[in-house]
Write a structure and sequence with these properties.
Blueprint: H1 3-50, H2 58-103, H3 106-110, H4 112-125, H5 129-139, H6 144-162
Helix pairs in contact: 1-2, 1-5, 1-6, 2-4, 5-6
Length: 168
């Protein structure tokens, strides 16, 4: 493969990972904002119920407690996207740093073996399935927009299944 093809593939991979990170963070961030506002509202309602005279409505308190508990669990799950984004950004940075070293060395820049080592290192570094899928799509020659859209579609399918998962 030509050095320019390797550069293009590496840049497409970085762009795809950044694009995926941005798209994946939008919904959880908005959900977290809503959840926190709802939790604050629940605490105000609980406070009102506790201050009722002669005595608070235990059934309403219990129901609000359960709703708040569900929202806190959903918040914890939504916070996982920060960890995923952090991992992905570290991988992007490491990959770009390796490419910069090769690009700065005229002999390595033209050496197919140097680029192969970079791509092997990239492939081995991935800990998330989505990263491997994205990497494989880029290596197959899919443009980064297509690779990201395909992965986002798969993620939405998983989200429908994951909504039934409970925390222990």
């Amino acid at each position: 493969m030509a050095a320019s093809t390797n550069q293009t593939m590496l840049l497409q991979l970085a762009a795809a990972q950044l694009s995926l990170s941005l798209q994946e963070t939008e919904k959880p961030f908005n959900d977290l904002t809503s959840l926190f506002l709802e939790i604050v509202q629940h605490h105000s309602q609980i406070d009102e119920l506790l201050n009722q005279k002669p005595k608070p409505d235990i059934n309403k308190l219990h129901a609000l407690h359960k709703e708040t508990e569900k929202k806190v669990k959903r918040s914890v799950i939504d916070f996982q996207f920060y960890d995923r984004m952090n991992q992905r950004l570290h991988h992007i940075l490491g990959n770009l740093q390796k490419a910069i070293l090769v690009l700065n060395n005229n002999e390595e820049y033209k050496d197919e073996n140097s680029w192969s080592k970079i791509f092997e290192s990239i492939e081995k570094s991935y800990t998330m399935r989505e990263e491997r899928d994205l990497y494989e799509a880029i290596r197959r020659g899919e443009g980064f927009e297509t690779a990201v859209q395909t992965l986002i579609s798969k993620t939405h399918e998983k989200d429908a299944i994951a909504s039934e998962i409970e925390l222990f």
